Amino acid sequence: MQTNNHRIYLLYPQKSGIIAPEIYGHFAEHIGGVFYGGLWVGKNSQIPNIRGFHKEMVEKLRHIHAPVIRWPGGCFAEVYDWRDGIGENRPVRLNWWSRNDGRLEPNEVGTHEFMDLCEAVGAKAYFAANLTTMTPMHIRNWMDYCLSPRGSTTLALEREKNGHPEPFCIPYWGVGNENWSGGGNMTPAFYANEFRRYATIMAYNFPQAELIACGENGRDFEWTQTFMREVVNSERHMNGYSMHNYCTGADMDALGFDEAQWDRVIDSACGMEEVICRNWNIISGYGMQKHAALVVDEWGCWYREGSGPSEGRNLFEQQSTLRDAMVTALTLNIFNNHCDKVKMANVAQVCNNLHCLFHSDGERCVATPTYYVYDLYQEHQGARLVPTMIAENIEPAQLSVSASEKDGKTLLTIGNLSCIHDTQVTLEAVGRTLPAAAEAYLLAHENISAHNTFEQPETVVPVKRVLDLQRAITIPKAGILAVRF
Ligand code: AHR
User: Can you tell me which atom of ligand 1 is nearest the CA of 354?
Assistant: First the structure.
């Protein structure tokens, strides 16, 4: 087995920013098995629950300090009427995804229930407003219902009647979703006008709401160019610019893959860095950095469906292996290293779907390897980035690294991107003295498609190590290491 040697420098004296906790955010849509048959089990269920939500998932999300959850879609948001999700006698509607899986939307989870979930998890809420099929007035009314002070407007009184006298805390509002596709198939210039129309109304009465514009998909930089050109002189009611970026391999299987397909997905995930930088260059070119910090509000791997435990019953459900954990690790490292540009990111989606943290079936629930990456990385949230430099002479790069410091403690996270070669790493701290030893956790497995199942939930879980920092550290192939000192 070939082993390469790398030196990682931790550049403590270099000035750098704070990693926004929201970079560690999540996305939960009314799609397939995410809510119904997943997160939501119902308040009267025999399945242990917290206000109707699957207890184990809520507790695990709380454990990793999930900072924000985006809701209700995704494409589902394009046809969502918030009034369907409040009060008694909720209507059953066609879901955006009904055509794909025949499931109808019972509206059992609406604004109040979703906010219960956020409260139970300790997460902030990020609502995606429907500008495809709703008017600005309709969205304004949703904001009025959610945000107006107790006892003020008729809608605030209705909220009180429905059990929540105090306003909800919903800091983030998306102005549309994927408006270049399901969200109306708009051109960027047309969307820019729509954005102006909606944002003006949304911001006027609720200036405290942070509005996030629908940005580009993948590498559609033309969308960013045109949108910025159209809004730069007129629209400043913008606090974020969203991007969607999936590592798409619809021809690929989540479970059955070889080394070349491992590399293909890892290469595609590494492309996130370029997407961030190119969008940021365009945004900076228009001087819009203060208004259009990046919000990567959908990201993850997207394979051929059907590999998850429901065997195809849950739309887009896919199994999550060590490869997906590596994509998570390297993507979060990229976000950390670009924390001056990225203010939020939401992995798609929480459970029983694409790049998920959990699979569930009734009471049964299993955390995926991706969940454990969020666990290992959680102390990066709100920490100051410590810039790193890797001395390596291998092409393509074999390591993904980021580091941060909070309350005098450093967290260094490293992914060995190679699924063939182990690697050796030596640490050097510039401006600090490294301690002799450090606590570390390693997420790794001999089998690169290893994953957790209901029957064997601990196939891929972090293992504790104590490292001698004066010597080279071995990271096995496809291994993810989190070092704390
Ligand atoms: O995450 C699944 C879907 O992917 C979302 O609904 C949509 O926004 C995107 O195309």
Answer: 1
- The catalytic position among 178, 216, 235, 317 is 178
Is residue 178 part of the annotated active site? The answer reads yes
The total number of residues written for the chain in this structure: 485
- Beta bridge partners, 467, equal 438
Cα 447 to ligand 1 centre (Å): 30
In this structure, which residue's CA is closest to atom 1 in ligand 1? 348
* Mean pLDDT calculated for residue range 378-407: 89
For 324-374, the pLDDT digits (tens) are: 999 999 999 999 999 999 999 999 999 999 999 999 999 999 999 999 999
d(CA 388, CA 12): 9
- Ligand 1 within 6 A of 79 CB? no
Residue with tokens 């001698």: 468
The verdict on the CB of residue 73 being under 6 Å from ligand 1 is yes
Q: What is the pLDDT of residue 446?
A: 97
Token pair in block for residue 301: 């791997």
Instruction: Give the model confidence (pLDDT) of 82-103 as tens digits.
Output: 999 999 999 999 999 999 999 9
Q: Which atom of ligand 1 is nearest to the CA of 96?
A: 6
Q: Does 160 participate in catalysis according to the annotation?
A: no
Residue 394 has pLDDT above 90, yes or no: no
Q: Residue 354: CB within 6 Å of ligand 1? A: yes
Ligand 1 contacts CB of residue 29 (under 6 A): yes
Q: Where are the alpha helices (DSSP H) in 22-174?
A: 55-63, 98-101, 111-121, 136-147, 154-161
Rounded to the nearest angstrom, the distance between the alpha carbon of 221 and the centre of ligand 1 is 19
Contacts of 40 (CB under 8 A, 6+ apart): 52, 53, 54, 108, 109, 113
Q: Look up residue 222 and give its DSSP letter.
A: H
**What is the residue whose two structure tokens read 């601990």?**
458
pLDDT of residue 251: 85
Query: Ligand 1 pocket, 317 CB below 6 A?
Result: no
**Ligand 1: which residue has its CA nearest to atom 6?**
74
CA distance 401 to 475: 13
| Nearest CA-CA partner of 359 in 405, 321, 402, 302 | 321
- In this structure, which residue's CA is closest to atom 5 in ligand 1? 74
**pLDDT bracket for residue 249 (50, 70, 90):** confident
Output the pLDDT for position 104: 98
Q: Catalytic one among 298, 317, 379, 405?
A: 298
Q: What percent of the chain has pLDDT over 90?
A: 95
Would you tell me the crossing angle of helices 322-337 and 259-270 to the nearest 10 degrees? Answer: 20
Region 151-166 average pLDDT = 98
Residue with tokens 């070349």: 260
